[in-house]
Structure formats: structure tokens, C-alpha cells
Amino acid sequence: MNTETEQQTYNRNIIVGLLIAGAFIAILNQTLLVTALPHIMADLNIDATKAQWLTTAFMLTNGILIPITAFLIEKFSSRALVIAAMSIFVAGTVVGAVAPNFPVLLTARIIQAAGAGIMMPLMQTIFLTIFPVEKRGAAMGMVGLVIAFAPAIGPTLSGWIVDSFTWRYLFYIILPIALIDLVLVILLMKNVTKLRETSVDIISIILSSLGFGGLLYGFSNAGSEGWGSNTVLISFAVGAVALFFFISRQLRIKRPILEFRVFQSWTFTITTLLGMIVFALMIGTETILPLYTQNVRDVTAFDSGLMLLPGAIAMGIMSPIIGRIFDKIGGKGLAIIGFAVLLLTSIPFADLQMDTSLTFIIVIYTLRMMGTSMIMMPLTTAGINALPMHLIPHGTAMNNTMRQIGGSIGTAVLISVMSNSAKNAAASNPLNALIHGMNSAFIVAAVLALIGFILSFTLKRKPQADKQGQPAR
After folding, report:
1. pLDDT over 60 (residue 3)
2. Which regions span the lipid bilayer (predicted)?
3. Domains 8-198 and 258-466 alike in fold
4. Is residue 294 very low, low, confident or very high in pLDDT (cuts 50, 70, 90)?
5. Are 115 and 85 spatial neighbours (Cβ–Cβ below 8 Å)?
6. pTM for this model (two decimals)
7. Where are the domains of the chain?
8. 352 three-state secondary structure
9. Which of 109, 144, 293, 442 could link 299 by a cystine bridge, Cβ 3.0 to 4.6 Å?
10. CATH superfamily ID and name for 8-198
11. Do 119 and 85 contact (CB within 8 A), yes or no?
12. CB contact at 8 A, 281 and 449
């Protein structure tokens, strides 16, 4: 760890500001094109299956790159990596703005996602390096703000932009912000992470890409194509086999790309599992509610996105406050209350009707997001605090990877339940059948929340004390 003298060589607030700005626009892009897809389809003359790849490819590239970031953080300086991540993202944004056709636009999204995939775990690792254990909760609360707020405002911002301008403005608006952040990073960013002697293991990188990419692709298609489709089954098979060989290799080689021994810590393992559940519930809910408001209640895409905004704002405001509370009391109590809130808010969503008050939905969703803020970043921080300093890059990479997989699984499971229940519903009106499917999906969500609630009681009262015998403050 840095000595007191070394710590004076960088300004922590400047680093935090630069990273939050960079991560915010990087993560915002994950959902920015969602509402704009119909406009892009019409402009570039493509069908919905092709258009969907603009969001799927972004998620897949993220999922492939995130596991490799632990290796990159040990191999290259933090300053060089932040500059590289932002430069790649800017390049992708430029290509997207001028893309003449679909293949070029898809390439732009993949380039953007490569920058974004490096940025998120890198930001978490840097925060955990520059903040002492007793202040990490507040620091990670700011990360929670980015994770909650950026993806949630994406569809709303996108809806407003494509209604007022063309979809290309989605790139034009992001570009100057990204460029300013890149220039400031070049001028002000300092190195804060420790480098370790490590070498590139190409086989591990290929196996990791096939493993995590295969699973994410399988889960992201299972909801729409069905669990038994050839595409999904082949993706799962490739992903599972590659992941098996990847894990075996990481446990054998001297310097693994991704250290699976982080799971030897019970606190890290249980907090990662609970993080997957809460992310699955968050992404699943954000997918199903707009389907209800748009397909059943005929609300516009823009207004539908606007309905989710109070929840995102509430979570954004709550995240830093919850982080400070975590620093004082630990994550156990917060997780128990958070999962109780998720369970209680799943019950009204499991009883949606044709005339359910939209205001009521906004209020329940906002409460749900406040419950999510009590769980997501506090448990991430508790899990990583349980690891020794040299495993923190691996812990953050693993946590981000598992969260992506959790989100994909959650969405796939809830959409599958919704589709199958709607098909088998004894309802003459297709809309009633669809509502029945959505209610069934939220019953499954309630069961997931109940599992999370029960598992929360197994957490240690003060996880910060796990860290190499360091006493909790």
C-alpha cells in the first residue's frame, strides 16, 4: 500500500471525478440505443433481429472484456489504462456518429463496449486502492450512483433525442463529454495501482471469451428464442465447456488471468451471489415494466422511460448515503432490509391489472430501487473488503462479470416465465394473457427476493473485519 508521502502525489477528489464522469458516459451507452432502435431500423433498412445486436453486442463485448481487466490492471499502469479505455470509447463514438450502414454502426458499438468494459472494474479497483477500508462504503456508493443512474436515464434521454433530432445525435451529444474527460485524464490522472509481474496467456483469453461470451449470449437469447432453441443450446454448450477449461487452467498456471481463488472467501462468495440476485431482479424489472406500460397500457416509449426515472434518481441519491451507513454498520442489516423491500414490492407487481394506477407503479418501482441501493454496492464492498489487497483487481473483475451474468440470467428467466405463462393462460383477450404472464414473472421475482432475504442472514455482521485480521473501525 502507498505510504503517506506517496499518497500526497495525487489528488483523490480529481481522480474520483475523472473516473465517475468516464464511467457514467460509458455505462449510459449500454441502454442509450434501446428507444432509438425503431428509428435506426427505418433509417438503415434493417429488421428487429439485426437491430437488437446493437445492444446485445455491447453487452457481450463487456462480458468478454471485464474478466480480462484483472490481468490488464496488474500489467499496465492505472493512468495508461484509463487513457486507453477512454480513447477506445471516443473512437467508437466517432465511428458511430458517422456510420453509413449497419455493419459500421455495429463495429462502433463493439469498440465503445471495449472501452466501457475496461472502465467499470478499473474504476472500482482504483477506488478500493485510494480509499482506506473504513471509507470504501462511501466511495463505492458513488459507483452505485453510476451503475443505477446511467443505464436508467439511457432510454429516456434516447427517446427525447430521437423524437427531437436524429439517432446520430446520441453519439454527437456523448462525444464532446467523452473528449473533455479524455483530455482531463491525460492532464491530471496519476498512477495509483501496483503492477505485478505477469505475462499474456493467449489460451486463457480465448477460453475466457468463449466461456463468458457463450453463456451471456445463450442467456440473452433464451428469453426470446426459448431455452430449447439450437442457438441457445449451442451457446450454453460452448460457454460451459470453455469455462470449465478456463477455470482449470487458471487454477494451474502461476499467474492466472482471473483468480478463482477469490471464492475461497465465504464473505466474497455469498456477497457475489446476492449481488447476482439483486442485479437479476433490477434488470428483469426494468425489462418487464416497460413491456407492460407500452404493450398493455399504450404509453409511449419516452413516457415509459420517464416512469423509471424517479426510481433511478432515488437510487442515485440513496447510494452515497447508504455507502456511509455501510461504513458504520456493515452490510448485513442493509442487505436484510433491502431484500425485504424487494420482496414486498414484488407482491403488488405480481397483481397487475388492465387498470392498475401508473402513479402506483412509479411509487412501488421507486421503493424497489431504494431497496436495491441498500444491497448492491454495500455487498460488493463487503465482499471485496474480505480479500487481501493483491486480489482486489480479481475481486472487482469477478464481481462485475458475475453481475453481468446475473442480469442476463434474470432477464432470460423472467421473460421466459412471462412468455410461457402468457401462452398457456386461459384468457380470450391477448392483453389479459400478457398481464397473466407478467404477474407470473413477478411471482418468480418474489421467490428470488425471498432467497436473497434468507441468505442475507448468513452474512457476517461486520465484513470489514475479515480483511487480513484488520479490525473494523
Report:
1. no
2. 12-33, 53-73, 80-98, 110-131, 138-157, 169-188, 200-220, 226-247, 268-292, 304-326, 333-350, 362-384, 405-422, 434-459
3. yes
4. confident
5. yes
6. 0.81
7. 8-198, 208-254, 258-466
8. coil
9. 293
10. MFS general substrate transporter like domains (1.20.1250.20)
11. yes
12. yes
